Amino acid sequence: METYNFYTGKEFFAHLYLGAHLTQDGVVFRTFAPAAQQIELLLNGQPQPMHKVQDGNFWELEVKGAHEGDRYEYRIHHDGQYVDHADPYGYSMELRPAHRSIVCDLSHHQFADQAWMEARRTRHTESEPMNIYELNLGSWRKRTHEKATDDPADWYSYAEIAGPLADYLKQTGYNYVEFMPLNEYPFDGSWGYQPTGFFSPTSRFGTPEQLMELVDTLHQAGIGCILDIVPVHFATDSYGLANYDGTALFEYPNDAVGVSEWGSHNFMYSRGESCSFMQSSANYWLGAYHFDGLRMDAISRIIYWQGDESRGVNGNAVDFVRRLNDGVKSLNPGTFTVAEDSTDFKGTTAPTSQGGLGFDYKWDMGWMHDTLDFFRTGPEYRPQNYHKLSFSMMYYHNERYLLPLSHDEVVHGKATIAQKMWGDYDLKFPQARCLYLYMMTHPGKKLNFMGSEIAQLREWDEKREQDWFLRKYPQHDSFYRYCQELNSLYLKHPSLWQQDYKQQGFEWRQVDDTESVVYAYERRDSAQERILVVLNLSNQKRDDYQLEVPNTGHADVLLYTDWDRFSGHTPDGSADVHLDERAGTVTCSLAPFSGIMLEL
Question: What ranges in 339-410 are assigned the alpha helix state H?
Fold first, then answer.
């Protein structure tokens, strides 16, 4: 670590100096605590005094005979009082409610994903398919099925879940998985978004070595791995970062900007030390664990003070995130970053050299809200809401968007995706099939939260596994097989992803029929492939619906949402589609709440 870089917010390897590191005959412990008057290392409960090193702001102690697995924390004295803190740079922590750091050797696991990592160096994900399965590791599957529990004995370990997860993703048609935060955190109900261990994989699911095995297994199966991280704020627990050296070392000293809407502490990015801390954390997950991408939470709170545009841009935090994005991608070629950003800030995905923030993708929250609002709306009101569904393409090329139907949309009384559909139980399924056809053929990378592929109707609860028993019921099983087939078509056809961010990759064929509530559009790749999608989102059948589609020599049906195998009413493989090459028209008949995908 370069001390100058650390202080000026340019360091990406602070974790290689600070923290606990094995030596030839023991462990050396180092921490940064400039305001501390005295620090004792509590090693397995036994206090040992640390001493100042370098410029006096760093503290160090080498303990002969200390070894991997030892528990430790720092007793930091300030103004006649002391608080025991976990190591901010610790590589492992105890399972909640315990919280001490654990001496850890990260060299045990020998990765076998060399082919993936070599290919990653030259990967350009913007012109490749990206179908992301968002996952909460503790509630995807549990040992105790169909029962709410927070018993650690019911969690599978990183290593145990690796094989079944890889198999399921391959079988279902996802080529990326996004893990909700795996940093250590005290409260299960925060889902990891209020961290205490920015370098510690949560011990809920095992050891750092087992997390490496999970990523390694997924890579060998051809599955990319994205990790949620939280660069904005941290938990207030006394053993964490809060008032670390007796003063506001990581956070703002003023609560008006220092306390977030979630009650956590905001990082103060006017301090170079905070920037170096978070940059090193991001670099650590990509480097040590081979994660391919980082999804960064609540970026609106980085851009604007407290996320409020009227309070102005937080210039120091914006500079930090630009430096972070450039730095981690330079150090880890082929990786990417994703912003969960709900603002209209221009240039979130523009290069920093052009004044942008340097993210590769931005969640399209507007698309998500407009789409779900439309599908909640009764058929009689859809004509006047017709353009809510098409509005996304009015601004789409402003950024490189990713379309999210995430965990945030299936909790806190919002209802699940399938449950949001207008109408009774039987009417929800055909509309959900249309929703996903629209999503998977709309420009932009895709993200779906676990359980949506089986049309789960119970809101997500981190204490329970997904309702896998639903596949015993024909409607839910056929919906899963529909998603599986749709995902497969998405991955197979370059026209659905190769030109996601180019004007020539998308063209409307019908975006004005408010009375019939029919939409049609074409997707194209850079060669000859063309796919036409037609959606009838009314509750009326549309017979002989004609579209102008020039330069078409054939029209093969790839998928029709009303087929019998999807619990529809049309014999499998059949569809009423006619092509007039001379007139340049395609005519089709569509059932209520149905959509069709044609290869031209």
Answer: 365-376, 386-390, 392-395
Tokens encoding 41: 């290392």
Provide the 3-class DSSP secondary structure of residue 546. Answer: strand
- Among residues 223, 555, 600, 590, the alpha carbon closest in space to that of 433 is found at 590
Decide if 128 contacts 497 (C-beta within 8 A): yes
pLDDT class for 146, splitting at 50, 70, 90? confident
* Residue partners of 358: CB distance under 8 A and separation at least 6: 321, 322, 325, 326, 329, 337, 350, 351, 352
DSSP assignment of 147-197 equals S----GGGBPPHHHHHHHHHHHHHHHT-SEEEEPP-EE-S-GGGTTSS-SE
Return the amino acid letter for 327. G
Q: Hey, what amino acid is at 71? A: R
Collapsed DSSP state (helix, strand, coil) of residue 27? strand
**What tokens were used for 76?**
């930091």
Give 97-115 pLDDT, tens digit per residue. Answer: 999 999 999 999 999 999 9
What separation in angstroms does the CA of 54 have from each of 28, 31, 117?
A: 15, 12, 37
DSSP string for 34-90: TT-SEEEEEETTEEEE-EEETTTTEEEEEEET--TT-EEEEEEEETTEEEEE--TT-
Cα(582)–Cα(151) distance, integer angstroms: 67
Q: Write out the catalytic residue numbers.
A: 297, 340
Question: For residue 403, what are the contacts with CB-CB under 8 A and spacing of at least 6?
Answer: 364, 367, 368, 439, 442, 444, 445, 446, 447
- Phi-psi region at 551: left, alpha or beta (left = phi > 0; alpha = psi -120 to 50): left
Give the residue from 92, 73, 91 showing the smallest Cα distance to 83.
Answer: 73
* Tally of CB atoms within 10 A around 49: 11
Angle at 169 between CA 166 and CA 171, to 5 degrees: 105
Report the C-alpha gap between 575 and 334 in whole angstroms.
42
For residue 103, give every residue at least 6 positions away whose Cβ sits within 8 Å of its Cβ, in sequence order, or none: 20, 22, 27, 66, 67, 68, 69, 70, 71, 72, 92
**Cα atoms in the Cβ-side hemisphere of radius 13 Å centred on 180:** 22
User: With left for phi above 0 and alpha for psi between -120 and 50, is residue 269 left, alpha or beta?
Assistant: alpha
Identify the pLDDT of residue 105: 96
Asked if 1 contacts 13 with a C-beta cutoff of 8 angstroms, the reply is yes
Note the helical H segments in 474-563: 474-492
Angle between helices 315-331 and 272-288 (to 10 degrees): 30
Residue whose token pair is 């879940």: 161
For residues 450 and 410, the answer to whether their CB atoms sit within 8 Å is no
Q: How far apart are CA 407 and CA 460, in angstroms?
A: 8
Return all residues near 376 (Cβ < 8 A) that are at least 6 apart. 420, 421, 422
Please report the DSSP string for 524-544 in residue order: E-SSS-EEEEEEE-SSS-EEE
> Tens of pLDDT along 416-470?
999 999 999 999 999 999 999 999 999 999 999 999 999 999 999 999 999 999 9
Which segments of 351-444 are extended strands (E)?
361-363, 401-405
> Can you give the pTM of this predicted structure?
0.96
Nearest to 422 by CA among 388, 387, 371: 371
185: Cα within 13 Å, side-chain hemisphere: 19
